[in-house]
Task: inverse folding
């Protein structure tokens, strides 16, 4: 369906408060609080209205939202903050039962240390001593360690190894980067190995790659020039940028 141009658009304090169309496309309306922050987004489709109501506290921080369909709440999301201003809780309603996540943070920093989930699981983070890099992640149910992960990095903070322990099994993964910090190789689960080839601005390949032809792909004579679909593109960069304003 081709969208028609706007038939009306109401502006209040330079805020968009409504959109309507000259065809059957549903209109949309918006409402703001005295501080110019969006409070409601209302869309009518057929016989139903879809209303999203944003909730904020006295400091203007988001405390969640409510999505209602024809006046009946479908989703309710809540966010709570601690005295230090960091997010302490987040949750949603599952039926009438609240499901809440809670966070604790490293002392003297904004790095999370523990997240408690509504299913009884907890996730604990550990960090390198002198860098804000995750060194360990441990999922627990009570005192039982369900999954453990350990990470190691090089001097440029690039991932080098990752160890995962789950149900008595341990998997070691490794990664390699070139001098431009581009991923060039990854050995995952000790069974799957991938090598990446990057492309320079001139279109010439960098690094090495493992060649593998699918069984369904017929062999092509080396004397046959590649089709346009087979040609590899040069470095993926945009060349122009256009701003559209209404």
Result:
């Amino acid at each position: 369906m081709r969208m028609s141009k706007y038939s009306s658009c109401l502006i209040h304090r330079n805020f968009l408060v409504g959109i309507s169309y000259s065809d059957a496309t549903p209109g949309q309306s918006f409402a703001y609080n005295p501080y110019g922050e969006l409070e409601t987004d209302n869309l009518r489709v057929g016989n139903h209205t879809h209303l999203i109501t944003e909730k904020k506290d006295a400091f203007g921080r988001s405390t969640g939202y409510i999505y209602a369909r024809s006046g009946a709440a479908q989703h309710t999301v809540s966010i709570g903050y601690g005295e230090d201003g960091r997010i302490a809780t987040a949750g949603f309603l599952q039926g009438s039962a609240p499901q809440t996540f809670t966070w604790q943070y490293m002392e003297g920093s904004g790095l999370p240390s523990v997240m408690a989930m509504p299913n009884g699981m907890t996730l604990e983070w550990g960090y390198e001593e002198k860098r804000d890099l995750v060194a360990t992640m441990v999922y627990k149910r009570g005192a039982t360690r369900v999954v453990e992960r350990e990470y190691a990095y090089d001097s440029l903070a690039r991932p080098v190894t990752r160890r995962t322990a789950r149900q008595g099994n341990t998997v070691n993964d490794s990664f390699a980067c070139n001098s431009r910090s581009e991923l060039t190789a990854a050995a995952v689960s000790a069974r799957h190995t991938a090598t990446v080839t990057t492309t320079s601005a001139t279109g010439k390949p960098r690094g090495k790659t493992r060649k593998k032809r699918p069984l369904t792909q017929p062999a092509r004579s080396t004397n046959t020039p590649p089709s346009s679909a087979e040609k590899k593109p040069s470095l993926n960069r945009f060349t122009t940028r256009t701003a559209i304003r209404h």
